Amino acid sequence: WLAALSPSFIVASATFGVTSAVLALDVLFLWALLLLLTKLREGQRPRLASGGIGYRLAIGVGVLAGMIAQFRSEVDVLIGASLFLVAWLNRAAFRHVAPALGIVILSAATVCAPWVIRNYLVFHKPIITTTNGGFNFWRGHSAEATGSAMRRDGTAVWITEATWKQIEPAGGSVGARVDSNVEFRQDSFLWSDARHWIRDHPTLEAQHAVEKVFFFLVIDWLNPQARSIPYLIVYFLTMIAAIVGIVRVRRERLWNNLVIRDALALMLLWVVFYTGVAIVFFPLPRLQVILTGFYFPVVIYGAEAILDWTRTKLPHFVMTSEEG
């Protein structure tokens, strides 16, 4: 029931739409990956002939990874980094872990293949996910950039008319032909323009990088969604529970448990990765919500500690107040 009432799940479902699906897939992916590692340590090997639980779990992890990649283009890199971390953490038994990781990669590639093939047939170029990377990169590194997805006046950072005319000079003329390659022209131009901006404005870029970290890990006051009272309440409740959970994990030295060690390492990787995504592009409230799905077990562990504290301390406080 704690999961059902999680503030982040409620906010995601009510406000950010498809983000709730990404959250669910994130949690399932983490659970399936950790369960697979547990089975591998117990000596179960993913063999095709036997069709054992390890084999089915490896396929499940890969399918979930492929499904997440259909929603979030950065997940391809994240999944690769996660599997590399798993291999490194279990390097002493790499010969046993490698076949499972291979099945995960093959399953994920199978899920992504129809979209990649479709893109190649339509655009005659290999497009793994989307062509909006340049646009989002430009939004974080241009004269319009603020360190947020929003300008100071609360409107979205977007391509200006002047910039668009540089991308598509004939776009505004009568009878101008805009073909399907406009996406690639836009993407290439915006990547190049943003790189030149970074090179020419290193001090401002460093300032924006610091602001992006704050906006992402604390609160983005330029974004109307992020500074709304409901979001502020539920986000900070989630963060308080996460901090309590981290303190509890440290106090109880739970990292001595190999499964928990793997989970904590993956959570740390994901936090660092998405903070990097925010710096390279820009922070968004929905990225904060997605990140919660990665460290959700720590949030739950902290929430349990808070509930235990209220059960033991609150009645005593009430009784003392009544006696006084």
Written description of the protein model:
The chain has helices at residues 7-16, 19-41, 53-71, 75-89, 94-123, 133-140, 161-167, 182-200, 202-217, 229-251, 258-280, 285-294, 296-323. It has 324 residues and is mostly helical. The radius of gyration is 23 Å and the shape is globular. The mean pLDDT is 81.
Broad structural category: mainly alpha
Summed over residues and divided by their number, the pLDDT gives a mean of 81
Got a strand count? 0
What is the succession of H and E elements?
HHHHHHHHHHHHH
Low-confidence stretches: none
What is the rounded Rg? 23 Å
Strand content: under 5%
Q: DSSP helix count?
A: 13
Shape: globular
Distance between the termini: 36 Å
Q: What is the makeup of the main sheet?
A: none
Residues in helix, %:
over 70%
Outline of the structure:
71% of the residues lie in helices and 0% in strands. It is mainly alpha-helical and 324 residues long. The longest helix is centred in the middle third of the chain and has 30 residues, at 94-123.
